[in-house]
Amino acid sequence: MGQYEPILVQHPIQPKTKDEVRALADQVIDQIIGKLLKHKVQQAA
Known about the structure:
Blueprint: H1 18-44
């Protein structure tokens, strides 16, 4: 498995509601997909 740079989200997460955690995920989903796709392209090269 390749090395990934971390994607940070606001903490603490524990006291947040499910909707608040989903909102945090929505804020970073594009970054996550971008890193995964970039890694996949690098593996294919």
